[in-house]
Design brief:
Strand content: 15-25%
Distance between the termini: 106 Å
Number of helices: 27
CATH architecture of one domain: 2-Layer Sandwich
Structural class: alpha+beta
CATH class of one domain: Alpha Beta
């Protein structure tokens, strides 16, 4: 009987345990929901889960051999957000603690408030760019203490509101307000400040309305409710941050405020002790330049600005705090290089500390852009160019003269117009560009100006090989015809009542009888005056355009189209074109202005037999993991110029004789490869040293590269010959003297 009751006992025990657990659970639930409800509710409110953008790293840039030119370096960025403050904590105190830490540790932070950083205060408006000046005006207009006296002042100084239109006419948008008889002076004054152009905001204007720098600081202290215990210098530090935060509330399209970029790990560790509420550290990356060369090619990145097309950028997936390519390769290949940001969900507790995170969307790195340049060769070209210009400058200095010179070189692959090197002097350092931008922009030598792609120069006699091609192919001259050069050429047609028009050869004694080959070799002006007369400007320009002169080369980083002399150009300026203009255009003068890159592509087109390609810097675009080739540079010729074998041979021969038996023979004795060349002297003015222009190709038998160089105030083209030889020697190896070069060049070490 006892054995039969035992199972029932088990059931009773089990039921008792279940009831006990249930009572405990109900007790805990009651305690949580009733007794501790307020505490848990407060904590849940302060536990915030929010999305956070995770930067997709930008793609790297390499040279043609895979050598990295631009990469990324992992870093940390410091931001400040009121949302991360502890409950009840004063923002001003939090900002002061953080800025004082930055000051103690030598960490610079972004502060564009145009007031000196220490008392006694003064305005620093001259340090602002146009965008920053506009932002400062926006903030000032948010202060009643500023807008009221400003409106009263503008009422009596309406000229400050004038705007100049694109056509030069001056208008005043305030005229309608000022002439409205239904408005009182007070009502007019209230509307006028909004019409003030940011460029009109000057220190003098602010002083005139009674808002000195010190007064502004006091107004801002009141506006942001700073404690009276803050010293003037402490207040100025805090106000700089408060100003940046306030701008973002007034102008939502401004990128989010990043106090400091690229802070080190030691500083980050100091922020983790909990005494710097409101501070947030985010991992990111900054562009790191692995070379000091190729600055004009590579370009730089910078943040999105208020005058960018925000709507378009947002539609493309950009965030307002993203950095985008602003120049060079960084801008040209932005779509390939930009990374795609990811989204991370981050939760924080009541103390503002991160309690958890996970990726909602993983970031995607940008692609790898491989360029056609070889870094070692690029460096050799830049160094050779700099050495030559600095030697010329030193020579002038010894004579008590100070001459500002610039220079540009372009070297192209003859077979496809790929850029092998592109150099501009003077240059700059991309790694410090953002810090040096103001200084660089004010530098009279214009180091930011890419003379190789943007500089426009008269080609001088380097235009003569093109003229020879046109004359031979059009039947204006034969290979055997000779023209007598007596040192002067007379225009066959005269106008009644006037004397004969005449032009001199650079060799006043003349060159005697010369054929086309000899005319190129000795650069006979008279011969080419005659060719220009026989061809006419229309035919000359047909050939010039076919060779790519007077129009963009198509290079991805952009270039100047130059100017092609002719009636159309003159007509656009409201001027006439005369027969004599055609004659001077035939020797590369008149209005002709071309870039070194255009000249190099013209020579490349000539010596490859007439195939005119679009210039390109891109070798290939590869996915970040190198698993896919997404794009390749180059393509089919844009057009093909008919150049007979006999014409090509004659023109090349004339350029070759210049380097072997002509005036450049002494320079080219040291060249490791047989080459053809042509010099040019571009006249500027009677009292200014001429520009030196130089073009060449190599090897002579089987051309591989074409080079064009311009040195401003270089004197003559022959002065550039030794530099060209140095560049050729850097490209070709010494054991290839007199031989055709194989497809892939070899660099001298």
């Amino acid at each position: 009987m006892e054995q039969k009751e035992f199972p029932h006992l088990r059931l009773y025990v089990l039921g008792g345990i279940v009831l006990l657990v249930l009572f405990i659970y109900l007790g805990v639930l009651y305690d949580t929901q009733i007794n501790d409800h307020e505490d848990y509710l407060a904590q849940s409110i302060r536990t915030i889960t929010q999305p956070e953008t995770v930067e997709g790293s930008r793609g790297i840039v390499t040279d043609c051999n895979g050598q990295v030119l631009v990469s990324n370096r992992s870093t940390y960025s410091l931001t400040f957000s009121s949302s991360l403050l502890k409950e009840g904590e004063d923002m001003n105190q939090a900002v002061l603690r953080l800025t004082e830490l930055c000051q103690d540790r030598g960490v610079d932070w972004v502060d564009n408030l145009p007031v000196s950083s220490t008392a006694p205060f003064s305005y620093t408006l001259d340090n602002l760019d146009s965008i920053q000046q506009g932002r400062f005006l926006t903030y000032l207009l948010s202060l009643d203490a500023v807008t009221e006296p400003l409106g009263t002042y503008l009422l009596t100084h309406p000229a400050l509101l004038e705007e100049e239109e694109d056509d030069g006419t001056v208008t005043n948008p305030a005229e309608a307000i000022l002439s409205d008889a239904t408005l009182t002076d007070q009502q007019k004054a209230a509307q006028l400040p909004e019409l003030l152009p940011s460029a009109a905001l000057t220190e003098q204007l602010l002083e005139d309305i009674g808002i000195s720098a010190h007064t502004l600081i006091e107004l801002m202290r009141e506006d942001f409710d700073l404690p009276v215990t803050f010293s003037l210098n402490q207040a100025r530090m805090v106000l700089g941050v408060r100003y940046e935060l306030e701008l973002r509330s007034l102008m939502p399209k401004i990128p989010s405020y990043v106090m400091s970029e690229d802070v080190d790990t030691a500083f980050v560790s100091l922020l983790s002790d909990g005494n710097f509420s409101g501070a947030k550290v985010s991992s990111s990356s900054v562009r790191e330049y692995q070379t000091s060369y190729a600055a004009h090619i590579l370009g730089y990145t910078a943040g999105i600005q208020s005058d960018d097309d925000m709507e378009a950028l947002t539609a493309q997936g950009y965030n307002l705090d993203d950095k985008i390519g602003r120049s060079g390769v960084e801008a040209a290949f932005e779509d390939y290089l930009r990374g795609r940001d990811g989204v991370r969900i981050v939760s924080t507790n009541s103390d503002g500390k991160v309690t958890g995170e996970y990726y909602q969307k993983a970031p995607e790195p940008g692609n790898t852009v491989e360029l056609t340049i070889d870094l070692d060769f690029q460096a050799a070209v830049e160094d050779a160019l700099a050495k030559t210009v600095e030697r010329m400058n030193a020579d002038d200095a010894r004579q008590g003269k100070e001459v500002i010179r610039g220079a540009g070189v372009a070297v192209l692959d003859v077979d496809n117009a790929a850029v092998l090197a592109l150099a501009s002097y003077p240059t700059y350092d991309l790694s410090t560009y953002l810090q040096d931008a103001t200084k660089l922009n004010q530098d009279p030598t214009a180091p930011l100006y890419n003379r190789a792609t943007q500089g426009r120069y008269a080609p001088g006699s380097t235009f003569k090989p093109l003229m020879a091609v046109a004359a031979l192919e059009e039947g204006a001259v034969t290979l055997t015809e000779t023209i007598r050069d007596t040192g002067i050429w007379y225009y066959p047609e005269t106008v009644a009542g006037t004397g004969s028009w005449s032009w001199k050869c650079w060799n006043r004694a003349g060159h005697g009888l010369v054929n086309v080959v000899e005319a190129i070799k000795v650069s006979c002006n008279v011969f080419f005056y005659e060719m220009a007369y026989r061809l006419g400007i229309e035919t000359m320009n047909e050939y010039a355009l076919a060779f790519g002169l007077g129009e963009s080369t198509g290079i991805e980083i952009g270039d100047s189209p130059g100017i092609l002399a002719g009636p159309a150009e003159r007509e656009a300026k409201g001027e006439a074109w005369y027969g004599g203009d055609t004659i001077t255009a035939g020797i590369g003068q008149s209005d002709n202005l071309f870039t070194p890159l255009q000249l190099a592509n013209y020579i490349a087109t000539l010596v490859n037999g007439g195939n005119h390609y679009e210039v390109h810097l891109l070798k290939a675009v590869k996915s970040y993991d190198n698993s896919q080739v997404l794009a390749v540079g180059g393509g089919e010729p844009l057009n093909t110029i008919h150049i007979s074998d006999s014409t090509l041979s004659a023109v090349k021969e004339g350029m070759h004789e210049l380097t072997t038996t002509g005036s450049l023979a002494g320079y080219f004795k040291s060249c490791v490869v047989d080459a053809g060349a042509k010099t040019g002297t571009a006249q500027i003015s009677a009292d200014t040293t001429n520009n030196g222009v130089f073009v060449c190709f190599a090897p002579y038998d089987d051309p591989e590269i074409a080079l064009a160089m311009v040195i401003e105030k270089g004197g003559s083209g022959s002065a550039l010959a030794s530099t060209a030889v140095e560049i050729l020697n850097a490209y070709f190896s010494a054991d290839e003297i007199g031989t055709a070069v194989i497809g892939e060049h070899q660099l001298l070490q």
